Amino acid sequence: MPELLLELFSEEIPARMQAKAADDLRRMVTDKLVAEGLVYEGAKAFATPRRLALTVHGIPTRQPDLKTERRGPKVGAPDAAVQGFLKATGLKSLDEAKIQRDPKGDFYIGLIEKPGRDAIDVLAEILPVIIRTFPWPKSMRWGARSGKPGSLSWVRPLHAITATFGPETEEPDVVKFEVDGIATGQTTYGHRFMAPGAINVRRFEDYEAKLKAAKVILDPQARKDIIFEDAKELTFAQGFELVEDQVLLDEVSGLVEWPVVMMGSFEAEYLAIPEEVIRATIRNNQKCFVVRDSKTGKLTNKFVLTANIEATDGGKVIVSGNERVIRPRLSDAKFFYETDLKTKLEDRLPKFEQIVFHEKLGTQAARIERIERLAAEIAPLVGADVAKATRAAHLAKADLLTEVVGEFPEVQGLMGKYYALAQGEDASVAAACEEHYKPQGPADRVPTDPVSVAVALADKLDTLVGFWAIDEKPTGSKDPYALRRAALGVIRLIVENGLRLSLMKVAASALAGLSVKPADATRLPSDLLAFFADRLKVQLREQGARHDLVDAVFALGGQDDLLMIVRRVEALGKFLDSDDGKNLLAGTKRASNILSIEEKKDKRSFDGAPDAALYGLAEEKALAKAIGEVKAEASAAVAKEDFAAAMSAMAKLRPPVDAFFDKVRVNDDDAKVRENRLKLLNEIRSATRAVADFSKIQD
Amino acid sequence: MDASLPAHMRPERSFQGFILALQRFWAEQGCVILQPYDMEMGAGTFHPATTLRALGPKPWNAAYVQPSRRPKDGRYGENPNRMQHYYQFQVIMKPSPPNLQELYLKSLAAIGIDSAVHDIRFVEDDWESPTLGAWGLGWECWCDGMEVSQFTYFQQVAGFECAPVAGELTYGLERLAMYVQGVDRVYDLNFNGRDGDQKVTYGDVFLQAEREYSKHNFEVADTAMLFEQFKMAEAACRKYLDAGWKDGKREAHLMALPAYDQCIKASHVFNLLDARGVISVTERQSYILRVRELAKACGEAWIHTEAGGAA
């Protein structure tokens, strides 16, 4: 079956946009094909800096014919109706229509046949629309045509479109269309410098091969593999090791059509700069990889660059050119680092009085003070030394004002640690300067040093409470202050370190420290708690755990100890996985359902202790007894925070509950007995509340 | 490269030869070769030959050197490549020709950068000038890992859509010349291409100026006067704009260029105040906005002039 080859040849496409663009092109074209009844076998899209390419194979030559029946007027209907029917169906006369009988009478039926069109014609219609509406994150106009409205917008000027269609065995046809003066053809171009000439292509197979001969590797993954393998080999041969960097690899592979990997070096004196700063300098500014000495594990004075050309001099000029650029960059970095070391972190703090953190939340200086106070308060709760936590909170943000962090924001925190160590701070204090930003996301490491934990919690809670106080909560996809991440950080810090903390109390302290007073200060901590519950649910869901149980636990009220909540949820989850758990849940739900129906009927609730004297059946008595025992046992277990034991106690409820529903008719004719039995059902519900609100659990 | 050039005029030997080679190359592409604008400005883009001529439907091809003043970048002559005054070479072609990238690469060849041995790359860099209310898409052009030029397709200038779009190239002349001459310190550039006691270096020409202006920009520039000048330039710009509408109707404008001079002035005065550290973070934004408002108003006036394409 025929295949499509499409190439959009342009000026250099930003590296970061290429992968998504290839994907969008594949999706848009194949979706449209399917919508047009052209079901294809497979499709693949590629991107290089100068081209987006797509191949779709196994496309039928023609759309299937479409047959539809159209019901017309009744036999004997007025002429106007008949004429309308003929016009709509394209029939010449009523002789061409069928007559169909149904209970309402005889009707004319017109059979409309819409013959399928050739796939190449369909393509010629859909492709220009896709090109004109392509979802580039940013696009532009260019050239003489941009003087007129409606000119094409593309990521960078588009120069040529190759579009061919045909079966493997034959010479394919050009899919003929024109976009903004660019007519399709089968001519593309090779590498900008090494093979700039025109290339005539037929279909994907020869297209990819001819491009390769013209020094263009079409497949981004192939370019990545080449860069990665060559870089590893090159460094290994000299006893070094490449510092792998997937993000950089992705970017670099989008900057070249013909990757040529080479190694350069810089003066060893620059190795006195912290490794992360060397890496940031070389990576961000030069898009080069850094290299480790395999024996010592330390960075070495080498770097790996990826050129886009096999230079005629073997690359000597390119390597020395890159070395000449990297040298002053490292020289700058070294200068910044050494300059930074001359000023103590605390001496930078007064400058924060001039820097506004948020218009409504005051200056950075005020924020640092709040974090200090809160860290001191949290410290004893997490086993941290109060003086160290206060000191760490005092210094933790100071590196934001250093030259190195100004230049490379991604080393914030880390530089704080280096500078703190350099000025002789305690190791925990220095570590907290870096670690208080952690965890930055679900995959980031959670600090364990109590000083880091105290400052990290204080930092995040101050942020959360602050933005809650000025009503800047995340909405939908908008979370400009990364509050969801902060809340998740708090959850992970507490749970993964096994910390006992009343969130409400800490939030209230954080709130008291704010100069801004929110309108609904009393509701704020519980609002915030609900936000934590949501984040906890999201986190559990992402871990594949049951998240509905979070609601069942939070619904008990007064739950603000995250660790206990999580433990309870875990125990509950395990319990509900067992047969006892499942049946008890079913029994409890049944009790609740009956109760809510009867409560509605009688317009009253059935609270209060049942009267033992009214129990007529053995099952009633057994259930009442079991409830009493289980309640006591579960509450005692919960008090000892032994949730597994509480669940085992609950399990004992299952047989009497089952037996009760089996043998006892709740709606007894005797109103008193009925009321008493309903009260007993209510007791089941309240007994289970020792561990969770079962009504919130999804089946 | 032109082999007939005497040695001291070769772009890899002399800074002035380097500039002349670029001028000659772009002259041959049909550009008018202008001389620098006679006002202080932060970048060649501020020259009315770019900012204003980029607006309106009329074709325009020009190239020129523009001294660029960045008061904050002064380093008292002590940094090997950072200066408060340097040269940009600016090319503007409207509409952008279809082969602008190729022309650019040829211009590199003309100054001695051979694309067979150098690794030349177009790396995404979107350009935006908040003070000019302008933006465009394009690249920074890399030669062996070094950024040597900016390449931009103007989409909007002074708040107006560019129709047609102009292509703009900006070469950092000192940096490129350093690369071509193989020197690591800008002040070591050979300016006139001569040897021995006839040799004049970039340092001979500009080092003293860098020291003096750094002191001026950071320590001494009269801030009271500058604040006043900013206000005066802003007021004058508004005044000329108001007075320029022919017959008081907003149909034709007769003084876009003099008004725009005051916008350039205000922008430079702001840069000086910024270097003196007397503008706070919040005020900074409002000054930028004030200059942008002037630039926009000048752009509007310009499109009502003859060169701006008004009927």
Automatic annotation (TrEMBL), chain B:
Give a Pfam family name.
tRNA-synt_2e
Coiled coil regions, renumbered to chain:
none
- EC code: 6.1.1.14
A GO cellular component annotation here is:
cytosol
Query: What domain of life?
Result: Bacteria
Assembly and interactions? Tetramer of two alpha and two beta subunits.
Protein name per Swiss-Prot or TrEMBL: Glycine--tRNA ligase alpha subunit
Q: Which organism is it from?
A: Bradyrhizobium stylosanthis
Taxonomic lineage from the root: Bacteria, Pseudomonadati, Pseudomonadota, Alphaproteobacteria, Hyphomicrobiales
